[in-house]
């Protein structure tokens, strides 16, 4: 009987510790490859990530509604940037609210301060009161300042991941969110 009770207590502890932080949890002021994804809110396994093939991305996003120069629009306010039929970036626009979110849980309609809580204050770039931007260099595993990011060559820019949010209104609600490498954002390739 005591062994059964001890096993039950151990099981409860294991479950409690395991449930305290899910695999999709993130800490503010950090960044990794796992950040470079968007997902459907109703199906957290329906994910589109940086580096994914176009075919895999379209299994989640559906059929494109229009495209131009490697940039494709999809239903529900999703835009995907492709380089050689591989995802080089994603954006959420009007129509995505309540359907898609970033891997950290940011979505359109959220307040600027709430998204700052998800991504952190320490490394945000000073790009204006209606913007929230971060630049992370995967080669050095460090956040970059605006000046540091600007000094990178076109070739080096592919290793720099950007998160960018644009906000509207007096309450600063998110109107678009971007996850893209700097090469695609600046040089469109």
Gist of the model:
The protein is an alpha+beta fold. The chain has helices at 2-20, 54-61, 112-119, 146-150, 154-157, 182-187; strands spanning 37-40, 47-49, 66-68, 71-74, 78-83, 86-92, 100-102, 131-137, 142-143, 160-168, 173-181.
List the helices and strands and how they pair.
Blueprint: H1 2-20, E1 37-40, E2 47-49, H2 54-61, E3 66-68, E4 71-74, E5 78-83, E6 86-92, E7 100-102, H3 112-119, E8 131-137, E9 142-143, H4 146-150, H5 154-157, E10 160-168, E11 173-181, H6 182-187
Antiparallel strand pairs: 1-2, 1-7, 3-4, 4-5, 5-6, 6-11, 8-9, 8-10, 10-11
Percent helix among the residues?
25-40%
Q: Give the distance, in angstroms, between the N- and C-terminal Cα atoms.
A: 66 Å
- Helix count, per DSSP? 6
Low-confidence sequence ranges: 1-23
Largest sheet data: 8 strands, antiparallel
Query: How many individual β-strands?
Result: 11
Alpha-beta classification: alpha+beta
Order of helices and strands: HEEHEEEEEHEEHHEEH
Query: Which whole number gives the mean pLDDT?
Result: 88
Describe the structure using short key phrases:
alpha+beta; eight-stranded antiparallel sheet; 26% helix; 189 residues; 30% strand; 11 strands; 6 helices
Describe this structure in words.
26% of the residues lie in helices and 30% in strands. With 189 residues, the chain is of the alpha+beta class. The chain has an eight-stranded antiparallel β-sheet with strand order 3-4-5-6-11-10-8-9. The longest helix is centred in the first third of the chain and has 19 residues, at 2-20. The chain is globular. Residues 1-23 have low confidence and may be disordered.
């Amino acid at each position: 009987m005591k062994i059964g009770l001890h096993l039950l207590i151990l099981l409860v502890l294991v479950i409690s510790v395991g449930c305290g932080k899910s695999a999709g949890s993130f800490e503010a002021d950090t960044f990794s490859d796992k950040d470079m994804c968007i997902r459907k809110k109703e199906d957290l396994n329906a994910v589109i990530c940086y580096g994914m093939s176009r075919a895999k991305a379209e299994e989640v996003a559906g059929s494109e509604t229009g495209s131009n120069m490697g940039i494709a629009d999809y239903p529900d306010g999703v835009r995907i940037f492709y380089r050689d039929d591989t995802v080089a970036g994603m954006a959420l626009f009007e129509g995505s609210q309540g359907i898609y979110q970033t891997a950290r849980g940011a979505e359109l309609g959220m307040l600027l301060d709430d998204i700052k809580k998800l991504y952190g204050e320490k490394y945000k770039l000073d790009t204006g009161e209606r913007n929230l931007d971060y630049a992370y260099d995967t080669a050095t595993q460090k956040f970059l300042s605006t000046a540091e990011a600007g000094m990178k060559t076109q070739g080096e820019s592919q290793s720099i991941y950007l998160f960018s949010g644009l906000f509207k209104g007096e309450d600063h609600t998110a109107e678009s969110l971007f996850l893209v490498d700097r090469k695609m954002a600046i040089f469109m390739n």
